[in-house]
Amino acid sequence: MRNAQMRVFRGDATGGDFKEYTVPVEDGMVVLDAIHYIQREIDPDLAVRWNCKAAKCGSCSAEVNGRPSLMCKSRMESFAEGEIIFVEPLRTFPLMRDLVTDVSWNYEQNKRIKPFTPKEDAKWVMYQEDVERVQEFRKCIECFLCQDVCHVLRDHDRKDAFIGPRFMVRVASLEMHPLDQGDRMKFLHDEGGVGFCNITKCCSEVCPEDIHITDNAIIPLKERIVDDYYDPIAKFFKTIFSKN
């Protein structure tokens, strides 16, 4: 057994700082286990959000050594002996207390997206490739790590104009569904802020479900926006057929 030096953020919306803790490390421990040890043995008032400890609920999102991560997936053995482990709350969202942030803004964005709208008298038959295309997006556990790392939301605080990668994924799951007839392109162009994304792929890098957010969701949506708004030929034919 070895000891790990951890610095955990303590504070609330009015301010705070890192507090140092020494935690004994056992085989198989993850950062969330270390946080629970601190709660149990040292500071019982340390606030942290968690639920399943199986990387499926998305609750224990935090920044571990500056990287947005699920604490239950960040293994203590991955840190070098003697390395100080910094644990802090997601920076993109308002701090409530210690490691807990207010992510309610995300749920408001979700309400803005037109829900699944099936075609009338649709035959509920799908090709396997269509199933696989949208199935990837359904793996999202809404940990909001992609929202946290997104430079548009994190560095520029454009929550007024950009819904973020998580909801680009949701729009893609609907737009690429073969039985859906809803049109969300105008929303993406005018309100969703798809043009703000400059394809850095940082959102894909932190996704615990390995969803190819940029390649499979955002880029195809951008291509559809270009076709609808900036391709004169495609725009002409869309205008003609919409009148018929």
Q: Tell me, briefly, the overall form.
A: elongated
Largest sheet: 5 strands, mixed
C-alpha end-to-end distance: 74 Å
Mean pLDDT: 93
Q: Tell me the CATH topology of the largest domain.
A: Fumarate Reductase Iron-sulfur Protein, Chain B, domain 2
Biggest sheet, strands in spatial order?
2-1-5-3-4
Q: How many domains comprise the coordinates?
A: 2
Kindly name the structural category.
alpha+beta
Strand content: 15-25%
Short description:
The protein has 244 residues and is α+β, with helices and mostly antiparallel strands. The protein is built from ten helices and seven strands. The protein folds into two domains: 2-101, Roll (Ubiquitin-like (UB roll)), CATH 3.10.20.30; 104-243, Alpha-helical ferredoxin (Fumarate Reductase Iron-sulfur Protein, Chain B, domain 2, Orthogonal Bundle).
Secondary structure blueprint with pairings:
Layout: E1 2-12, E2 15-25, H1 31-42, E3 61-64, E4 67-70, E5 85-88, E6 95-97, E7 100-101, H2 104-112, H3 128-135, H4 145-149, H5 151-154, H6 165-175, H7 185-192, H8 202-206, H9 213-229, H10 232-243
Parallel strand pairs: 1-5
Antiparallel strand pairs: 1-2, 3-4, 3-5, 6-7
Helix pairs in contact: 6-9, 7-9
